[in-house]
Design goal:
Layout (H helix, E strand, L loop, with lengths): L1 H20 L4 E2 L5 E2 L4 H7 L14
Antiparallel strand pairs: 1-2
């Protein structure tokens, strides 16, 4: 259980750091843009996506 919490906190920290570094925002529950979103909201927004195809770098 403790390991899950540590992984969750690291993921949240990594997400918020990346949003801040790239000067990006993510819509919150009210529809307003924020840099301090939660992982629960991110998981909720991506619920139902079964496959994500991204282009390779250099192509």
């Amino acid at each position: 259980m403790v390991l899950r919490l540590i992984i969750f906190l690291i993921a949240k920290w990594n997400l918020r750091t990346k949003l801040d570094d790239d000067n990006e925002t993510f819509p919150d529950q009210k529809g307003e843009s924020t840099k301090r979103t939660t992982m629960i909201w991110i998981f909720f927004k991506f619920q139902g996506i079964t496959e994500l195809i991204t282009p390779k770098k250099g192509k």
